[in-house]
Amino acid sequence: SRNLKKQATFLKNTFLILLISTLLSIPGFLSKGATSRLDQTLLFTSEKHIKLYEHYENNCHNTLIQINPKLTFICRLQYNKFSRLILIGGDSLVKHLSPGFYFFSGDNEPLRNTTGSGQFFVALFPVWMIGVLILLKEYKKHLAVIAGYLVALLPSTVSGDPHATRLSVLIPFFLFTIVLGYKFLRKYFKKFKYFVPLFILILLASASLHVVRYATDTFATHEITATYLSYAKKIARISHDYVEQGYTVYADHDLY
Which residues, in sequence order, are CB contacts of 1 under 8 Å at separation 6+? Predict the structure, then answer.
């Protein structure tokens, strides 16, 4: 029991450190020195979303004018510059809270993810769901984890659609949730002696499938990565010929 208490204390301290470090990084993310990139990605000031909500407001006005012109004040209340921030941010937050990106769709960039699959193995989805239910049920006990989970969503939430790199700070909190679900299942199936080997087998099968799909589908066929692959083969052939002649070869993508 002492070891369990020490481990629990260690985990709490670890997640407290992660939470504080995440909070401390936010001013740096929003600082003037970072605005060159932030201006390109900040969701609330993007031309796309401003025009989108202007379009919504115009549609609202056109609809209500036909019913009763006095009702157009509803459009001003719903789509003013303050409520628009809430609508844009709320829509993005819902996308980031959804398990779709993490287990099913994933990042569209082939260099960060396998095409058509989530950031985590789909087999872990029910385990994660159980962990989420435990977090919500025992929220007082896991308050630091829940807070860290929500704060870790901010860099990607304010920048648009879910993004694997910007969500990397979420990984420890996400894995902790999966571990909670796993511990519950292991306790629930304690009489089933093959539970752990079966769980490991499922993870190994998922990992093998991921490697095969990435090698044969995503990397070899996607337009961007297939170009890299073709380039690598071309450079290898050229380099081999020049090396045989005693030259030192330096490859430049723009030259080939």
Answer: none
